[in-house]
Design a protein that fits this description.
The complex is a heterodimer of chains A (about 575) and B (about 80). Chain A is an alpha+beta fold and about 575 residues long. Chain A is built from 20 helices and seven strands. In chain A, helix 8 packs across helix 10. The relative contact order of chain A is 0.12. Chain B is built from four helices and no strands. Classes of the chains: A alpha+beta (about 575), B mainly alpha (about 80). Bound molecules: flavin-adenine dinucleotide.
Chain lengths: ~575, ~80
C-alpha cells in the first residue's frame, strides 16, 4: 500500500518539472499554452483544441491511471501539480483535460475488470466525463432520475445529464442512474457508457451552456434514449452507485485545489507584476503601505490554499478513512479562500482587474490583465462543482460528533510524516475510504500539540501568539459543538460553526506544514517563519481576531516579491517548477 | 452492547432517534416505513450510523442503514452484528 521513503522528494516531482518545461513560458506566443491565445479563445468562448491535443500528446492522462492498472499514478501530488501547472496558464485547459481524472475515478474505487477497461480508455487520450448532475436536481444526487436497466446481456440507459463538462466531446461517460425504482440510497448504479459501444443515434445533446467562467469549455447536456451497452459496463456492484460516488468525491475534492491554486498563482503573478511598475499618479503599488498590506494578505491566503492542497492530497494517501471529513474541510475552505483573494486583489488592481482582451495596459505584457479577469471568473467554478460549499459545510456539521468522540491522537511525528518533503506514496488505497470517519480528523485533533510544538523558543512570537489564539478558538468550538443537536436539517448556527471549524482546520494545516517542512521550504519564503505568522494571523482575523500586522504582511510580501523576481511561483513546496 | 437487548428494544431506540433527527411525530410512521420516506436524506443515514456505533459499541459501516432501509430491518441488522 503506502510507503514513506526518504530522500525522494525531488525525484518524485521530476515529471512535474518536465511537464512545466514542456508547456513553456506562457508569455511566449509560441508556447504550448500562451496567455494571449488563452485570452482570445476565452473571449470567443472557443474550445482550446490545440492546447488539449498537445497536452494529450505529452501523455498527462497516464498520470490519471493508477500504476496498478498500468498507468503512472503513484503519488497523487504529481498529477495534482501538473493540473496546477495547466491552471496557472489556462484554467479552461486544466478543467477540460483534468475532467478525465474525475470521470475515471469511480472505476478505480470500484476496482476489478471495469478498472482495467477504464485504464484502456483513458490511455487512448479520449476524454472521460462524469455524469452526475441532472437539470433541476443539482447537488441532490439521490434524486437522479436517469434510469439504467441492468440486464444479463445488456444495460440500457435512458434520461439526461446537465450541465456536464465535456458532454459532447467525451469518448465515454460514467453515468449515475437509477437501477431500482423503489428508491433509497441503494437504488442507484453507475454505468460506463462508451460512445463507441452505444448506437450513436440513441445519444443526443443539449446546446453548449454559455457560462460566466470556463467560457470555452464544452459544458453542455447529454440525453440517452435507450442507449445500450454491454453488461460488463456496470461500475461496481448494482445499487452501489451512490456509495462509490461519495467515496470518489472524497478524492476529487482535494484534487480540485490544484485548479484553485493555479488560478491563485496567476492572480498573484499579475498583482506582483502590476505592483512593481509605476502607474500614473499612483506611483508603484509596492510603495504604498495600504497596498502592501493587501498584497501581503493575498500572499498569505495563497499559501493557506497551498497548505490545504498538500494536506488534502497527502491525507488521501495516508489516512483515507478520514477523508469524509478532510475532503469537505479542504473543499470548503480552499475555494472560499481563493474567492476572497480574487475579491481583494480585484479591489487592489482597480480598473485593471476588469480589463478584457490583450490590449497593452501600461508597461505590462498585453494579456496580463485579460488573464487576471479570466482566472477570476474561471476559479469561481471550483466552489460550485464537485459538491458546492453548502454541501461541504453540511458534511462538516454531520462529522462534528465524530470529531468530539474521545480518541487517542497518534504521535506528532506520525501525523506529520505524510507532509514531509521526503514523503512518497506508491498508491491510493481506495478500499480504506469510509462514508463517515470514526474519530474525525487526527490533524485537527493534533492542533493543541502543534501549538505546543511551535512554542519552542525558536519560532517568532507573531507566529506563536497567532497559533495560541487559534488553539483557544478550537477548544471553544469543541465546547460549542457538544451542544449541537443531531438533526437531518442542521440549523444555520450549525453551518456557522462548521465554517469556523474549517478555518481552525486551515490553521492546523499551516502549522503542520511548517512543522513537517521547516527545513525544506525553499527560499525566500523559507528564510524565516514569517509565512506561518502571516497565514495564522490571517486565519485568526477571519475568526474575529485583529488583522495581519503590517510588519508581518510587509515581510511576507518582500519574500514573495523576491521569489517572483527569480521567476519562481510563490510556493512552500520546493521542486515542482522547471526553474526550481 | 448489553447481551440481552432484543430487536424490539433496538427498534424503540431507533424510533426515538428518527423522531429526534427529523422532528417528526412518532405516530407518523411505523417500523416498516422506508427511512427514505421520512424526509430523512442519505446524509442523515451517515449520522444515524454514528449514533449506532456509540449506542451499541459497534463498529459498523454506514451502509448498514442503506442495506436495511426500515427500522425493523435495521434493528435486526444491528442485533445480528452485535452477536457476531
Ligand atoms: C462549470 C461547471 C461544470 C460542471 N461539470 C459537471 C460535470 O462534469 N458533471 C456533473 O455531474 N456536474 C457538473 N456540474 C454541475 C455541478 O456539479 C452542480 O452545479 C452542483 O452539483 C451544484 O448543483 P446546482 O448548481 O444545481 O446547485 P444546488 O445543488 O441546487 O444548490 C443551490 C443552492 O442551494 C443550497 N443548497 C443545496 N444543497 C443544500 C443543502 N444540503 N442544505 C442547504 N442548502 C443547500 C445552497 O445554497 C446552494 O448553493 C458542473 C457545474 C459547473 C458550473
Amino acid at each position: 500500500m503506502t510507503a514513506v521513503a526518504t530522500g525522494v522528494g525531488a525525484g518524485t516531482l521530476a515529471p512535474v518539472r518536465a511537464f512545466d518545461a514542456f508547456l513553456g513560458d506562457p508569455a511566449d506566443d509560441d508556447a504550448v499554452i500562451s496567455t494571449s491565445r488563452s485570452v482570445l479563445l476565452d473571449e470567443r468562448s472557443a474550445f482550446p483544441d490545440d492546447e488539449i491535443t498537445a497536452v494529450t500528446a505529452f501523455g498527462l492522462q497516464r498520470w490519471y491511471i493508477p500504476a496498478a492498472h498500468g498507468g503512472a499514478l503513484t503519488d497523487a501530488l504529481v498529477p495534482l501539480l501538473m493540473i496546477r501547472h495547466l491552471a496557472r496558464r489556462d484554467f479552461t485547459v486544466a478543467a477540460a483535460h483534468g475532467k478525465t481524472f474525475l470521470g475515471a475515478i469511480c472505476a478505480w474505487v470500484a476496482d476489478g475488470s471495469i478498472a482495467t477497461r477504464m485504464a484502456g480508455l483513458v490511455e487512448t487520450g479520449g476524454p472521460v466525463s462524469w455524469g452526475l448532475t441532472e437539470r433541476g436536481r443539482g447537488s441532490d444526487l439521490s434524486r437522479s432520475a436517469t434510469t439504467a436497466q441492468l440486464g444479463a446481456d445488456a444495460v440500457r440507459v435512458d434520461g439526461g445529464k446537465w450541465p456536464i463538462n465535456n458532454a459532447v466531446r467525451c469518448r465515454a461517460m460514467t453515468v449515475l442512474a437509477r437501477s431500482d425504482e423503489r428508491g433509497g440510497p441503494r437504488s442507484l448504479s453507475l454505468v460506463l457508457v462508451d460512445k463507441d459501444e452505444a448506437e450513436p443515434a440513441t445519444i443526443g445533446y443539449e446546446p453548449k451552456v454559455a457560462s460566466h467562467g470556463l467560457r470555452g469549455a464544452n459544458l453542455a447536456g447529454i440525453r440517452f434514449e435507450g442507449s445500450v451497452v454491454g453488461p460488463d459496463t456496470v461500475v461496481g456492484p448494482e445499487g452501489h452507485g451512490l456509495e462509490i460516488v461519495l467515496k470518489s468525491l472524497q478524492l476529487t475534492r482535494p484534487f480540485t485545489t490544484g485548479l484553485s491554486m493555479g488560478a491563485v498563482d496567476r492572480a498573484l503573478q499579475t498583482a506582483l507584476d502590476a505592483a512593481a511598475v509605476p502607474d500614473g499618479a499612483h506611483g508603484r503599488l509596492l510603495d504604498s503601505p495600504t497596498a502592501r498590506r493587501s498584497l501581503g494578505v493575498a500572499v498569505a491566503d495563497a499559501l493557506l490554499v497551498e497548505c490545504l492542497m498538500l494536506v488534502g492530497v497527502r491525507s488521501a494517501h495516508a489516512v483515507p478513512a478520514e477523508m469524509a471529513l478532510v475532503s469537505a474541510l479542504v473543499k470548503f475552505l480552499g475555494p472560499d479562500t481563493a474567492d476572497l483573494l480574487f475579491r481583494d486583489l480585484t479591489r487592489l488592481l482597480g480598473a485593471r482587474a476588469l480589463v478584457v482582451g490583450t490590449e497593452t495596459s501600461g508597461a505590462l505584457h498585453p494579456s496580463a490583465f485579460g488573464a487576471f479577469q479570466k482566472a477570476a471568473r474561471d476559479s469561481r467554478v471550483v466552489g460550485i462543482f464537485d459538491g458546492n460549499s453548502v454541501v461541504n459545510l453540511n458534511m462538516i456539521v454531520n462529522e462534528l460528533p465524530n470529531q468530539l468522540r474521545p480518541a487517542p491522537t497518534p504521535p506528532l511525528a506520525e501525523v506529520l510524516a505524510p507532509l514531509r518533503a521526503d514523503a512518497h506514496f506508491d498508491a491510493l488505497d481506495t478500499t480504506a475510504l469510509r462514508l463517515v470517519t470514526r474519530h474525525g480528523s487526527r490533524l485537527l485533533r493534533s492542533l493543541p500539540a502543534f501549538v505546543d510544538a511551535v512554542d519552542d523558543g525558536r519560532t517568532s512570537r507573531a507566529a506563536v501568539d497567532a497559533a495560541r489564539w487559534i488553539g483557544r478558538e478550537y477548544t471553544a468550538l469543541l465546547v460549542e459543538a457538544e451542544t449541537l443537536p443531531r438533526q437531518s436539517q442542521p440549523d444555520p448556527l450549525a453551518f456557522h460553526l462548521a465554517e469556523r471549524f474549517a478555518l481552525v482546520f486551515g490553521g492546523a494545516c499551516a502549522l503542520a506544514v511548517h512543522l513537517a517542512r521547516a527545513d525544506s521550504v525553499p527560499g525566500p519564503l523559507g528564510d524565516s517563519d514569517v509565512w506561518l505568522a502571516a497565514v495564522l494571523q490571517r486565519v485568526a482575523n477571519r475568526l474575529g481576531a485583529d488583522p495581519v500586522q503590517a510588519p508581518v504582511a510587509d515581510a511576507l510580501l518582500d519574500a514573495a516579491v523576491r521569489a517572483h523576481a527569480a521567476g519562481s511561483a510563490v510556493t512552500l513546496l520546493g521542486s515542482w517548477t522547471a526553474r526550481s | 452492547m448489553p447481551v440481552q437487548l432484543t430487536a424490539t428494544e433496538i427498534e424503540q431506540w431507533l424510533v426515538g432517534r428518527v423522531v429526534a433527527y427529523g422532528k417528526i411525530q412518532a405516530d407518523a410512521f411505523t417500523i416498516d416505513t422506508p427511512l427514505a420516506e421520512l424526509g430523512l436524506d442519505s446524509v442523515y443515514a451517515l449520522t444515524l450510523c454514528g449514533d449506532i456505533e456509540d449506542e451499541f459499541q459497534l463498529e459498523v459501516d454506514p451502509t448498514i442503514v442503506w442495506d436495511h432501509p426500515t427500522i425493523r430491518e435495521l434493528a435486526e441488522g444491528i442485533r445480528q452484528r452485535a452477536e457476531e
